[in-house]
Amino acid sequence: MQQHDFDILVVGGGGAGLRASIAAAEHAPDLKIGLVSKVYPMRSHTVAAEGGAAAVTLEKDSFQAHIEDTVMGSDWLAEQQVVDYFVRHAHAELVQMEHWGCPWSRKEDGTIQVRRFGGMKVERTWFAADKTGFHMLHTLYQTSLKYPQIERLDEFFVLDLVVIDGAIAGVIAIQIATGEMHLIRAKSVILATGGAARVFRFNTNGGIVTGDGMAMAYRHGVALRDMEFVQYHPTGLPGSGILITEASRGEGGIMVNKDGYRYLQDYGLGPETPLGKPENKYMELGPRDKLSQAFWQEQQAGRTGRYGESDVVYLDLRHLGEKYLQERLPFICELAKAYVNVDPAREPIPVRPAVHYTMGGIMTDAQCETNIKGLYAAGECASVGLHGANRLGSNSLTELLVFGRLAGEQAAANAHAQDFAPLSTMQEQLNQQQQQLAELSARDTGESWVEIKKELLITMEEGCGIYRTEAGMQKTLNTIRALQQRYKNVQVTDKSKVYNTELFMCLELGFGLDIAEATCLGALERRESRGAHQRLDEGCTARNDEEFLRHSLVYYQGQEDARLEWQEVDTSILPPAIRAYGDAAKGAKS
Amino acid sequence: MKLDITIQRYLPEQAAEPFAQTYSVPYDASTSVLDALTYIKEELDPTLSYRWSCRMAICGSCGMMINGKPILGCNVFLRDYAKTGMLIEPLAHFPVERDLIIDMESFLTHLEAVKPYLINKKAQGVQTFEPHVQTPQQLDKYQQFSNCINCGLCYSACPQFGLNPEFIGPAALTLAHRYNLDSRDQGQAERMPMINSEEGAWSCTFVGYCSEVCPKQVDPAAAVNQSKVTSATDLLLSLLGGRS
C-alpha cells in the first residue's frame, strides 16, 4: 500500500478534469494537485467529440437566445440560473482555449468561424474541423504540462471514495500496472469521470465510458439526478455505432429514408428546407431526441433501409462536394470509408441512432459541489442542471470548460479552508475495500462477468431505448436487480497483479449495474413523455408539467432497492411553454 | 469465416519469456482487429491484455504490430488478412509490460520535453478576452502537424528510436514544429535547444517510415525535416550572433 497527499485530487483526465486541474493551478499556485485517470489523459473520451463547442459569438446572437434554445432543448427540465451562468461564461472559455493554442477553424479574415447546430437558432458553434473534442483535449493536456504542481497518476483505477462525517477525505485507487493499492488523501476531490453510455449495447462511446464516478458518488449517498434521460445520437454507423457528427447536418447534410424521402418533415420539423440551404431549427437541424424518435417511427412504418444487421436511414452529403467535405468534415470522410466503405462525396452514409450521452448524473449545486462537503463533479458525470431532458449538441464541450473551471476554483477555495482527515479514520474504509477485492480475486467458482454484461446491455436497450413502456421498463428493472444478485458471485479468471484488465472490466460492470438501476427506476417513475424520455403507454405519451416538471433524484439504498424522490425545477427565467421546431414553432409563439 | 490469429503473449508473473498463442476467431467483412481481441477476451481467454477505448482511430490506445507493421488495431480488418494470416505483437522499440501493453513513459517524457504549448510573451491576453487573428493560411501551416493522436506507431517505425530511446523522436519533434509554426507562438527560441541537441532533429536519418505508418497522415518525417532547416538556420544565426 502506498499513500499520497494532495490538496486537490481530480479523478478523470478528460476535458473537465484537465480544465479543473489547470483552473486550480492558476487560481491557487500554492496547492498540490493530483490528477488520477484510468487511462492516459489523451485517451479520454472527450477525444471523440467532433462537431464543436457553443458560445454566443455573432452580433445578431444574444445570451437570451442561447438560454431559450438550451431551455427549450431541455424540455424545460434545465436549471435556468445554471443555464444563464453557462451562457455568460461560454465565450470566455472558448477564447481561453484559443489562447492556449486550440486550432479553431477560421474565416478568411482570421476571425473565429461558427457553424450551425441542431436546436440552436443562431450559428454559435466553434469548431476545429470535425475533430473539436480531439483538439480541445490535446490542447488542455499539453497546456497542463506547464504546471509543475499538477502531478499525474496515469493508469490508476479509482475503486472508491473515502467519506468521513459527510466530508470527502480522499480516494482508494489501484495502480493498474502493478495491482498495488494506493490511499490518496485530499482536502477536495473533483469527479470528472464522464458518462455511462456503455451500459447500453449500441453506442457511440469508447470502452472506458462506464459510469465509475457516478456509481462511486451514488454509493456514498449522493443523488443521481435525471438519469432516465439518455441521449440517442441520430447518426451512428450501423454495426459499430461510431459517431457521425451532427456538424454533417449543420453543414447541410440531409436525412432520407429508403425511398429517398426527407422524412423529418413528417415529424414536426418541416417544411422541407431546400437542398444546400439548411435553416436553423428546421428539419435536419432539429434536436437529437426528435430526430432519433423520427427514426424509430420510420422503422415501425417499414421505411428504413438495411445495412448488415441494422435498420438504417441515410445521411446524404453528396451535394456538398468533395472539396468542402475535405475541408469541413475530413474525419467523417475517413470514418465512413474505413467502417462502412462509403465515400460520402459519392454515396449516402447509412446511419442509425446510437446511445451517445448521459444527460443525468451526480447531483451538484450551481457551484459544482455535491452534498458531500469538498466533493465536486463536472462534465458528463455531473448533473449541474444544464441539459434537462435533452442536451443540445455543442453545449457539452463548452460545459466541461465552464464547469470544469468553476469546480477547480471552488475546490481550491475549499482546500484552503480544510485540513486533511486523519489517516487513522480512513483506515477502516481502506481495509474494507482491500477485503472485498481480496474476496473477488480469491473466488474460484462463480459466473463470468461477460455473461452478466451482455444481458445488461440487451435489457437496457429493450427497456430503456428511444421509446419505452411500463411493462418493458419493469421487466428491465427486474432483470437488472437479478443481475445485481448474480454479480455478487462473479468470478475473475485472471489472478495476476500486472495489468489485470479483466479485473477492471469486472469492476466497471459492478458500477454499471448500479447506474442501470437508477436509470431504469427514473424512467419507470416518470409517467410522462419529455425530451429523450418517450413513453408509448396510455396516459404517458405527452409532457405532464403538473406532475412531472420535476427532477428525479435516485438514492442508493445498499442491499435494498434504490429510492426515488422528486425535486423542483428552476424556471425563473422562462416559464414552461410548448416545445416546437420548424414552422410549428411559429404557431406556438402566436 | 474464421481466421487463426497468433498473438505474442507476455505474462511477467508467470514466465520470464514471451510466448506465442493462437486463437481462432470468426469474422465478417466489418470485423476489426480490435473486435477480434474483444472476442478473444470475452469468449476464449480473459487473461489477454491490451489497451483500447474509442474504436474509431482517434484515442490512440490500440497501437500494435501486425505482421511486423505498426498499426492501430481498430483501424484494420480481418478480411484483409485472410491470405496472409495474422501475427500480433506489442509495438516495437518499447519495453513490454504485459501482452500487447507497452510502457509509454519514454514517449510521454519526450512529448513533455519540447514544451508543447503556446508560449506567448506578450501575454496578448486572456485579459482582453479576444481571440488572436489567425487566417486560414496561417492555420494551414501547422494544422496537419496538430493532428497527432500520440499512438506511438511512428516510434515503432523509427530505426533511430529503436537504437537510441533517448532520441526524442518523430511525434515529439512534430509537436515542437507544430507550435513553432503557429502564428500565435513565440516560443521557438525555447524549443530550439532541444531540437538542436544530440537527441533532437539531427538524430533522424530520414528513413521516412514514420510517415508511412502514421494513421492520421500527420507526416512526421516532413516535420522533422523542416525542423532541420529551422535548426540549421538557428545554429547559423547563433554563430553569427544574430539571435539573442
From TrEMBL, chain B:
Gene3D superfamilies hit by this protein: 3.10.20.30, Alpha-helical ferredoxin
Entry's cofactor comment: Binds 1 [4Fe-4S] cluster. Binds 1 [2Fe-2S] cluster.
Swiss-Prot/TrEMBL cofactor(s): [4Fe-4S] cluster; [2Fe-2S] cluster; [3Fe-4S] cluster
Keywords from the named record: 2Fe-2S, 3Fe-4S, 4Fe-4S, Iron, Iron-sulfur, Metal-binding, Oxidoreductase, Tricarboxylic acid cycle
Enzyme Commission designation: 1.3.5.1
Keyword Iron-sulfur among UniProt keywords: yes
Pathway where it operates: Carbohydrate metabolism; tricarboxylic acid cycle; fumarate from succinate (bacterial route): step 1/1
Family: Belongs to the succinate dehydrogenase/fumarate reductase iron-sulfur protein family.
The protein, known as: Succinate dehydrogenase iron-sulfur subunit
